[in-house]
Amino acid sequence: MKVKTTLFPEFISVPTPKSENPLYDIVINENATNENYCIALVHKIFELPHSKFAAFIDFQAELMKDELKWINKLEKLITINEDLFLENKIIGRYNKMFLYIDKKRDELQSSRVKESAIKTPKRFINADAEDRHFSFTEVKNSIENIQNFNEKIIFITEEIFEYKQADIISVNNKLQHFDEQCTQLIEKLQTIRKMKSEFDKEKELENNTSESNPLPKIKIQINGPINILTNAFKQMMVNVKPNGTAYISYKIKDIAIFISDNFIDDKGQPISQATIQTYLSPNRTDKDPNNDMKVRF
């Protein structure tokens, strides 16, 4: 059964082990997401005995901070899934649930007018309709409790559509039109999200650039003949310590790479690796410096 969903700004569900009232609880053992809540709620309406509809609505509404908003969302959920009731030939269940929803809404509207007025001052209400009011201040407060960005946008968009479809009785001319404020809020959220995404990409690019382009290595300049330097390494590679090992135990090629990578000649020019290898060769004593110029250890 494919259930169409609507966004509930507030919903309560419990896993099976914590359910104290299985008949009226909305039980979700998987992730308690808005989508899973809508699916579980539709299944509950399909399974619940007709005689329990009123008690179920009372039970669930009392769990909510804003009972009237939950009632309106329940009505919308049933409306957009009307085809499921038709396909399963239980349109009577559909109609009866609507009767109890209307009854509960009338009860809430009549008993909580003062409470609603205290909760949202009249000056923050953009417009009044027959069955509800529209307040941009309430919308902003509601989305603060919604963590998912897409669900924020969906919630505001649904409020815009409900406003446009409502039979508006009065409008607060001191405030901007409700739908205009909501549209601007969507644009603001999308702009901020885009900016954050771009900043994150820039930061990632900077980190990647700094890692791929490290600072240039400083090379040591030799202010004299290169063979003085290579002979010093040559001595440490050839001469042995008392324990029989050389001071530097590396191949000539490895030492030649090291010197060419870390030193430059007296003119600031790179030193040829091939030349260094020739100077380091034990057989090329002709390339060694004179004794009075050698570095002695």
Account of the protein in words:
The protein is mostly helical and 297 residues long. Helix content is 56%, strand content 4%. The strands form 2 sheets. A 3-stranded antiparallel beta sheet has the order 2-1-3, with no helix packed on it. Strands 4-5 form a two-stranded parallel ribbon. The longest helix is centred in the middle third of the chain and has 35 residues, at 178-212. It is elongated. The model has no long low-confidence stretch (mean pLDDT 88).
Which secondary structure elements does this structure contain, and how are they paired or packed?
Layout: H1 34-47, H2 53-63, H3 67-80, H4 82-87, H5 91-111, H6 113-119, E1 127-129, E2 133-134, H7 136-143, H8 149-165, E3 168-171, H9 178-212, E4 220-221, H10 226-238, H11 252-262, E5 263-264, H12 273-280
Parallel strand pairs: 4-5
Antiparallel strand pairs: 1-2, 1-3
Helix pairs in contact: 2-3, 2-5, 3-5, 8-9, 11-12
| Share of residues in helices | 55-70%
What count of helical segments does DSSP give?
12
**Over all CA atoms, what is the radius of gyration?**
39 Å
| Lateral arrangement of strands in the main beta sheet | 2-1-3
Q: Structural class, from secondary structure content?
A: mainly alpha
Average pLDDT score: 88
Shape descriptor reads: elongated
The string of secondary-structure elements, in order, is HHHHHHEEHHEHEHHEH
Span between termini: 88 Å
Low-confidence stretches: none
| Extended strand count | 5
- Content of β-strand: under 5%
Largest β sheet strand count, sense and barrel closure:
3 strands, antiparallel
